[in-house]
Amino acid sequence: MKADLYKLDGTKEEGAVELPAQIFEIEPNDHAIYLDVKAIQTNARQGTASTKNRARVRGGGRKPWRQKGRGMARAGSIRSPLWRGGGTVFGPMPHEFHMKVNKKVKVLARKSVYSYKAQEGAVKVVEDLQFPEPKTREFYTLLNKWELSGKKITLLLGAVKQDVIRSGRNLPNLQIRLAKDASTYDLLDNEVLLLEQSALETLQEVLKS
Asked: Which end of the chain is least crowded, N or C, by CB within 10 Å?
């Protein structure tokens, strides 16, 4: 499968890059994608939500009125869950959320997303980016020339480049990730998947299993 190559002079060469078949042309596995995304979202939870049950709420140690003789419903504590200001029944408590996914499943999930994106024509390749100094305007101008501004883009870099990261971090709808670190969720959350040429080589190393 071929992808368009976007050049730093603002031009585009259609079908100039051959995408690795072992990554971009596999039979996508929806269940692997589901498991990996679920694990990512689960492991991102802090699990710090906390409520007080009737034993933890301050006060309520004394019986508010005598059991019989007042013509009112009996009550043993003003902190009963039935009362305003009382304890919470079965409310959230601090809890560690964790879900493990095998490495092979993670790799399969990422390959599946890459294959889906390639089928949709959403995968684009760009010459390795470089800016003399961090300039958001230059990055924005480049996206305009490529006719990609206004689209939700995930840019995958082959290596850490502070000039590129700082130039693009204030652009709306653009997220920048390292190719070796991009998660399945990162790859799904976009309209265009923009890869540096060096990122393609990185992917072949990272996803070779």
From this structure: C
Q: Which residues pair with 2 in a beta bridge?
A: 18
Tokens 């790859």, residue located: 187
In angstroms, rounded to a whole number, what is the distance separating the alpha carbons of residues 1 and 117? 12
Q: Which two tokens stand for residue 164?
A: 């590129």
Q: How far apart are CA 110 and CA 1, in angstroms?
A: 17
For the domain with range 2-45+98-206, which CATH number is right: 3.30.2020.10, 3.90.960.10, 3.40.1370.10, 3.30.980.10? Answer: 3.40.1370.10
| Beta-strand pair 2-6/123-126 | parallel
Structure tokens at 88: 């919470």
Cβ count within 10 A of residue 155: 26
Number of other residues whose CB lies within 10 A of the CB of residue 86: 18
Task: Encode the chain (209 residues) as per-residue pLDDT tens digits.
Answer: 888 898 888 888 887 788 999 999 999 999 999 999 999 999 999 999 999 999 999 999 999 999 999 999 999 999 999 999 999 999 999 999 999 999 999 999 999 999 999 999 999 999 988 888 888 999 899 899 988 888 999 999 989 989 999 998 999 889 999 999 999 999 998 999 999 999 999 998 888 76
